[in-house]
Amino acid sequence: MIRTVRVGLQARGYDVLIGSGLLDQAGGRIAPLLKRGRTAVVSDTRVWALHGARLAASLEAAGVAVSPVLVPPGEQTKSWEGLAEVCDRLLALELDRGDLIVAFGGGVVGDLAGFAAAIYKRGIDFVQIPTTLLAQVDSSVGGKTAIDTPRGKNLIGAFHQPRLVLADLDVLSTLSDREMRAGYAEVIKYGLLGDFEFFGWLEAHGPAVLARDPQALAHAVARSVEMKAEIVAEDEKEAGRRALLNLGHTFGHALEAETGYGEALLHGEAVAAGSAIAFRFSASQGLCAGQDAARAEAAIAAAGLPTGLGAVADKPFAADALVRHMAQDKKAEGGKLTFVLARGLGETFVAKDVNPETVRRFLIAEGALP
Ligand code: GLY
Question: 177-365 in CATH: which number?
Fold first, then answer.
């Protein structure tokens, strides 16, 4: 069964299809979006080796010529150099505005190919085919595209909505358990930020989702995408409510920045730890009940995800360094820090005026070095 979630953005609206076997249907679903029968598929060498032949066969069977544009796997590809390389390859292929780019991979490929699509010849259509749980439930939906610079992650980018998202649950079978858990952190995030019932469902069915039980996985991805679609339709450019999707991200980004955005701490792991910390911080400020923070933490821990500053073995974090990263966050304004904080499970809000000193003292109580 294929589930369809609509991202309701009028002329820029699009469907997110979720289910099994979508790679084999990709040709039939993408061909009608093309003016002439050709496309460039931006992917990384690992994803392409695993699944490229199936995607190419499906597109070719629908009369679409495929030019793969392959990049090395890993966050370092999301750079000025990586962007220049992809754009140059697209120019060499003589892609024009009537053509379309397919972003086929995880969050790195989606962000990079999406940004290339946003600026190539002042904008060309693209389709997202996300291959990680994290990309299926979060980064492929909503049109955020970006690259990193040495000064920080996702600092250069554009909002550019895809024409279609195909989330094939079958491709998740080749993900490592660790990558599944990291994506699952973003799934729990949806329950925590705005759907108490979904959170309760995840407490019961989380193990089945992580074990890739088809029914459980389909529900978890579809509910996450529904929530994201609803928020994006209301607030595409993050003027307000979309910021709730950043639950766990201010604390999480600081941990990632301190660990160098690498294998030591995956983005989803940082979001997991950051979400648990955000709930405890909310409880420490008297905003939510301590038992809600404990329940959020228990659900995150039950998935084998980190819940605090012990996220990276043998890596102590210094409170000052973490607060410094938070102050550089895109959302920090006027010397105050911005966080998504909680009033309860499934009830969050954006706090834009958090005093850095309060956070510093809290982090020391959490075990950070003074
Ligand atoms: N990942 C957060 C957002 O798309 O707004």
Answer: 1.20.1090.10
